[in-house]
Amino acid sequence: xxxxxxxxxxxxxxxxxxxxxxxxxxxxxxxxxxxxxxxxxxxxxxxxxxxxxxxxxxxxxxxxxxxxxxxxxxxxxxxxxxxxxxxxxxxxxxxxxxxxxxxxxxxxxxxxxxxxxxxxxxxxxxxxxxxxxxxxxxxxxxxxxxxxxxxxxxxxxxxxxxxxxxxxxxxxxxxxxxxxxxxxxxxxxxxxxxxxxxxxxxxxxxxxxxxxxxxxxxxxxxxxxxxxxxxxxxxxxxxxxxxxxxxxxxxxxxxxxxxxxxxxxxxxxxxxxxxxxxxxxxxxxxxxxxxxxxxxxxxxxxxxxxxxxxxxxxxxxxxxxxxxxxxxxxxxxxxxxxxxxxxxxxxxxxxxxxxxxxxxxxxxxxxxxxxxxxxxxxxxxxxxxxxxxxxxxxxxxxxxxxxxxxxxxxxxxxxxxxxxxxxxxxxxxxxxxxxxxxxxxxxxxxxxxxxxxxxxxxxxxxxxxxxxxxxxxxxxxxxxxxxxxxxxxxxxxxxxxxxxxxxxxxxxxxxxxxxxxxxxxxx
Length: 523
Prior knowledge:
Number of domains: 3
Distance between the termini: 70 Å
Radius of gyration: 27 Å
Helix content: 25-40%
Oligomer: single chain
Strand content: 15-25%
């Protein structure tokens, strides 16, 4: 063969390759793409363009095809088998991804679709880099039968292997139903787009047929429902573009893996900054609320915080901040909702966040203002004992640096539950406004001075008199400080400086535990 003929043959093959590649990258074609846009949704490839740094995305297994001949699939082409997989750089850091495309056969999951996801998850685990899934799928490809179910099983298995090893984030950007919901549930963080995404085990039609309840897709499993009622959604956003941007923000707080250093931000704040606004933030009366988020933002670099599950279990706050450029996980009672009391949902929310931070070596800062655990039959029957125990377990299990600041109330078992020294806090500080006691003054007096109050000529006046005396003696940080239960009483405005010094002192903390297979957390 002559050189010219060989060149022509080679160029022809390259042209064929380029033509086939372009065809596959159109996925479902222009009509399906237009339908996607009518629903105010982007295609998988449009989402990837927003997510990755320019020209860094490397697609994996573009030419994979399904191999089923059942129910007419033998004559049906499904470009890229309905999912785009690969890796690229996000703000200069490598991230692996699987993005389902609803324009290509509804993004349905079949055998080879799943194996593409398996492949990129295996690569992420081996490379020790974060894995992101963008879900937009009609569910299992029913025509393929059991192989579709096996596909989901293999994804769940890899989600579990990767848990605590690499960060896993799932964005629900369209329908996600049935077995498909469990991969998001196994991931670390779940994002949902309002109005265009939903997830549920069984849809409205099945719900109506089985139990006679009428409900819409959005009411049953929309972003707002899961963000405010179930807690399944950690971040609810307004659009696909907003979703992508928020995921990128979250990734900026996370290391590549549990073996990687924490990311360091360039935009550091002043280490010597005094937070004078904190000196007057606590109200004069202990039953008045205040904005705990103002405290968090005051302590954080440049007033920035990334809150998770903002609309669920609002009596507790979990958020990432940076302090001198390094990520810190914050857990704080929220006096604006149920006085910051601990209940079933708050315990679950905080426990999961604590365990994530500990898995990825992110220090923990706890801000305490808690009157106790929520009383009543509803909480008892919902398992507050079991759920509350998760919080005790999570804090005790965590070996990262743990700093606690008591801003106001710290009563009874809830004082212990909010990272007391006996749960392994490395350093506990209290503001002069702190009230550390077994319970509130009036409740304590009703027990301790029951007979004295009963015998008094004016029991109510006597109760108030004794309560004032009790408050003076116990509802302050000095008694606890005298026993070494707290390490330091500080002026609120100095809190950020103290935290910076402690984080620096504890940065090389190493704590070994009893050798065993794993803990048995009270799930």
